[in-house]
Amino acid sequence: MRCPFCGHDETQVVDTRENEEGDTVRRRRRCGRCDKRFTTYERIELMLPWVVKKNGSRVEYDREKLKASMLLALRKRPVTSEAVDAAIARIEEKLRQNAEREVPSERIGELVMRELKKLDKVAYVRFASVYRNFADVDEFSEAIREVKRPRPRRTPR
Predict the structure, then answer these.
(1) What is the pLDDT of residue 100?
(2) Are 39 and 28 within 8 A, CB to CB?
(3) What is the rounded CA–CA span in Å between residue 76 and residue 72?
(4) I want to staple 121 with a disulfide (CB 3.0 to 4.6 A). Which of 26, 27, 143, 147 is the partner?
(5) 67 and 17 share a domain?
């Protein structure tokens, strides 16, 4: 693994950990030349469906694009990168479970909104405003009312 700081190609793994789901391995590495440390992630690469955009074009699923859009909605919000990675993993798992070769971009957008709603309500409204292309303040108000609605409480058995 090449050092991202100095480019040296000899690095040493100093710590290895699996995430809770067991589908990702986190490795802490140390460069043999500059002695700086960095983190790498190893995950199984499974084929995800192609994304069918609104205009009918098809593109490969891009994890980094999904993460960038979520991080934009979560900008300056108190959500850890681990929580974001876990949300993305849940989205990808749902896409795999469907076992479809193609998935509409709208489906991915809905999955992202569901995860953002759990992570941070402000980020949810931010994402929804762009994703749903809000035309006026009333649509913002409705999205805010949606996240403010109290959930029905479960009664203990």
Answers:
(1) 87
(2) yes
(3) 9
(4) 147
(5) no
Q: Are residues 59 and 26 in the same domain?
A: no
Indicate if 104 and 134 belong to the same structural domain: yes
Half-sphere exposure of 133 (CA within 13 A, CB side): 1
**Nearest partner of 122 among 145, 146, 151, 144, judged by Cα:** 144
Domain hosting 30: range is 9-44
Residue 46 has pLDDT above 80, yes or no: no
Quick one: CA dihedral 118, 120, 125, 127, positive or negative? Answer: negative
Q: Could you tell me if 40 and 58 lie in one domain?
A: no
Alpha carbon distance 23, 111 (integer Å): 20
Q: Does residue 27 sit in the same domain as residue 56?
A: no
Q: What are phi and psi of 29, to 5 degrees?
A: -125, 155
pTM of the model: 0.64
Residue 39 lies in a domain: yes
- Positive or negative torsion for Cα 116, 121, 124, 128: positive
Of 22-26, 116-120, 143-147, the one with minimum mean pLDDT is 143-147
- Assign 37 a pLDDT band (cuts: 50, 70, 90): very high
